[in-house]
């Protein structure tokens, strides 16, 4: 085994894997350092447009890490490291606080913030969120937390307690990447969810004859029957947009409309608009 081969020898993974392990350790160290002053983190906002009116109804906060030498690192990479290294609570608080502060001055109905399952298991999570809302002055019903379907399925006492407290306060819950977790369909009746975000893998498959049309249609119908709002993520083409509008999806989000924007870009988009009117698309 790797252990028996002793010090100085490469592990069974070989040199390439060792390089990856070393890189990962370096990034964890940098992440720890970056979290002590937070200046390398930014929160970007991707608009969500109401399918019917074309209005920019809300935004989703997405974390960004501007690493001093490696450039912009995706949350797909650093969120799992933060989770494993016990840093997600701090990172999550930062994103929430920044998003709530920004949203408090914006006219959107809601701001959505992604939450990791590790945060949901933290017995102090709901209290943290309430503290952030009161510090930033954002009303609880203007905050929505995006939780992946898989995280939401978890049988966990702390998670349930957090969900109950958050919902009692009026905070919205959206199931993110919906349709990828397989088993939620049957449990939606007992849900305490407000909103479903259809995973972009289904949107991507539209027109590819994989049955994704039927899946999306079923999700939208189910959501409507339950009184839940639907958003499609990852909308990149007009053909996808047309289909999603036709089946009655409520909100559309994706590169077709806008990439995630910095807070300053959102400020500029809103500047000079009378009566806090929302930007509207001509394309929808
Ligand atoms: P998500 O919440 O499902 O967010 C959607 C991801 O798809 C975002 O990537 C977004 O930039 C990207 N996207 C948006 N429109 C399109 C499109 O039209 N086509 C394609 N191909 N992609 C599109 P991003 O920002 O890299 O975030 C990835 C994931 O990282 C998020 O998935 C979310 O699960 C997680 N994440 C982001 N920010 C945070 C955070 O603050 N906390 C936690 N716990 N997770 C976060
Ligand atoms: Mg999300
Ligand atoms: Mg999503
Ligand atoms: Mg997704």
Written account of the structure:
This protein is of the alpha/beta class and 284 residues long. Helices cover 44% and strands 19% of the residues. It is built from 11 helices and 10 strands. The protein has helices at 14-37, 75-84, 88-105, 117-121, 125-136, 149-153, 157-168, 200-204, 212-226, 238-247, 263-270; strands at residues 41-50, 56-67, 71-73, 110-114, 143-148, 172-178, 195-198, 229-232, 251-252, 261-262. Strands 1-2-4-5-6-7-8-9 form an 8-stranded mixed beta barrel. Helix 10 links the parallel strand 8 (229-232) and strand 9. Helix 5 runs parallel beside helix 7. The radius of gyration is 20 Å and the shape is globular. Residues 1-6 have low confidence and may be disordered. Ligand C2E binds next to strand 2, helix 2, helix 3 and strand 6.
Distance between the termini: 60 Å
Give start-end ranges of low-pLDDT stretches: 1-6
Helix content: 40-55%
Average pLDDT value?
Answer: 90
Order of helices and strands: HEEEHHEHHEHHEEHHEHEEH
Strand content: 15-25%
Q: Major sheet: order of its strands? A: 1-2-4-5-6-7-8-9
Structural class: alpha/beta
């Amino acid at each position: 085994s790797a252990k028996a081969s002793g010090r100085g020898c490469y592990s069974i993974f070989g040199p390439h894997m060792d390089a990856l392990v070393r890189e990962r350790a370096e990034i964890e160290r940098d992440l720890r350092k970056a979290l002590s002053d937070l200046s390398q983190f930014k929160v970007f906002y991707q608009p969500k447009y109401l399918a019917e009116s074309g209005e920019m109804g809300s935004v989703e906060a997405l974390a960004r890490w501007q690493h001093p030498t490696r450039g912009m690192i995706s949350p797909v990479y650093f969120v799992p490291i933060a989770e494993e290294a016990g840093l997600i609570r701090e990172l999550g608080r930062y994103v929430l606080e920044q998003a709530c502060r920004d949203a408090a001055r914006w006219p959107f109905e809601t701001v959505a913030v992604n939450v990791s399952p590790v945060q949901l298991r933290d017995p102090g999570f709901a209290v943290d969120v309430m503290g952030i809302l009161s510090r930033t002055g954002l009303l609880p019903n203007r905050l929505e937390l995006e939780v992946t379907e898989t995280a939401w399925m978890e049988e966990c006492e702390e998670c349930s307690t957090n969900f109950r407290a958050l919902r009692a306060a009026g905070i919205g819950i959206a199931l993110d990447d919906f349709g990828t977790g397989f088993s939620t369909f049957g449990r939606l009746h007992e849900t305490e969810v407000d909103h479903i975000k259809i995973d972009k893998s289904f949107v991507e498959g539209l027109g590819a004859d994989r049955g994704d049309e039927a899946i999306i249609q079923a999700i939208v119908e189910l959501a409507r029957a339950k009184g839940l709002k639907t958003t499609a993520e990852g909308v990149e083409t007009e053909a996808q947009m047309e289909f999603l509008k036709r089946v009655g999806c409520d909100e559309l989000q994706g590169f077709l409309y806008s990439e995630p924007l910095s807070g300053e870009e959102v400020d500029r988009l809103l500047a000079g608009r009378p009566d806090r009117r929302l930007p509207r698309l001509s394309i929808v």
